[in-house]
Design goal:
alpha/beta; eight-stranded mixed β-sheet; 321 residues; Spore Coat Polysaccharide Biosynthesis Protein SpsA, Chain A; 8 helices; 27% helix
Length: 321
């Protein structure tokens, strides 16, 4: 007689590998070009047309040399808009929709990790740094004019982790006019210890040393699983990166506008995750994180003050030219 094995619920995923999503890819790092320089930003988007102009302008002022935007089946004209608005010297649009799984195990590989791997392998040799973020994340220097200047003291390291400063609805039912940075000014009261569930990271990495690509964590040939914060404090990413003493946005800050307006959130829930993330888990995690972010909030004007200052400087420079 055949008996169906009783598998404990926490271990059932081991016996259904075709439903597991992997967000890490081992790669061979590219060889650096002799004249490589500057910072590239890499992101994957879907229907972010209304937000990308501000996002690109913000990061151009922060010193990003080139943008690689992976367009995942956008239906709002994202790709056409970007190609008309920006020259190929500034921005590259890559159509991107791929569902890939390892042949033997059936493990699905996240679309975001695949896009990042493609960017590193195809374009990484040209750049000193690559920054892997999303369209609702804004990175800026706190004490320097540009991100390249802020990264200069960290040039001995290949892997920099930036903790997210989380912003919620800020009472906006609908997208406000004037952009994200000027309208979303309140973040979690204790930005790094409100709850470990909402502490996460994005990375700026030397692409010519990346040998493992992730979404929130990378490995490099010289540092392995280790990384540094924006002050150069080194730690093992898996063990110490979330400890309060390791978290810093003293020199470089990453603002994550997690929900934007409630209308934006509804659209986000409708379209689901960019990668093949189970819809029910995606929605459950999203709403849980929002509750933590909204529980208490304080004003943080660092981004809007920096952006306003840079715009004034840019306008003044144009008047003198």
């Amino acid at each position: 007689m055949w008996y169906k094995p009783l598998i404990p619920k926490p271990l059932r995923w081991l016996f259904n590998l075709s439903s597991v999503l992997v967000n890490k890819c081992n790669i061979r790092p590219p060889q650096p070009a002799a004249d490589r320089h500057g910072l590239a930003a890499v992101l994957i988007v879907r229907n972010e047309k209304n937000y990308l102009d501000e996002w690109i302008d913000f990061h151009r002022k922060a010193g990003v040399r080139h943008f690689f935007i992976y367009d995942d089946l956008s239906t709002d004209g994202t790709a056409d808009h970007l190609k008309k608005q920006y020259s190929p010297e500034i921005l590259t649009v890559i159509p991107w929709h791929i569902n890939a799984a390892a042949g033997k195990t059936g493990l699905w590989i996240g679309r975001q990790a695949l896009a990042y791997s493609h960017a590193v392998g195809t374009f990484g040799s040209e750049f000193r740094w690559m920054m892997f973020i999303d369209a609702d994340e804004f990175v800026f220097p706190k004490k320097s004019a540009t991100l390249m200047e802020a990264l200069e003291p960290l040039k001995a390291y290949s892997n920099i982790s930036l903790p997210m400063v989380m912003f919620g609805f800020n009472d906006h039912e609908h997208p406000p006019s004037g952009g994200v940075v000027r309208n979303y000014l309140r973040c979690t009261a204790d930005r790094f210890t409100a709850d470990k569930a909402i502490i996460n990271f994005k990375c700026i990495v030397d692409p010519c040393k990346i040998n493992r690509v992730g979404v929130h964590q990378f490995a490099t040939s010289d540092m392995g699983e280790c990384t540094v914060n924006d002050q150069g404090m080194r730690y093992h990413a898996n063990k110490w990166r979330r400890k309060r003493g390791s978290l810093s946005c003293e020199n470089i800050q990453l603002n994550h506008y997690y929900t934007r307006s409630k209308q934006d959130l509804a659209k986000r829930l409708a379209r689901g995750a960019v990668s093949m993330y189970p819809k029910s888990k995606y929605e459950r995690d999203l709403m849980s994180n929002i509750e933590l972010i909204e529980r208490a909030a304080v004003e943080d004007l660092a981004a809007v003050n920096w952006y306003t200052k840079r715009q004034i400087e840019t306008n003044a420079k144009r008047l003198t030219e």
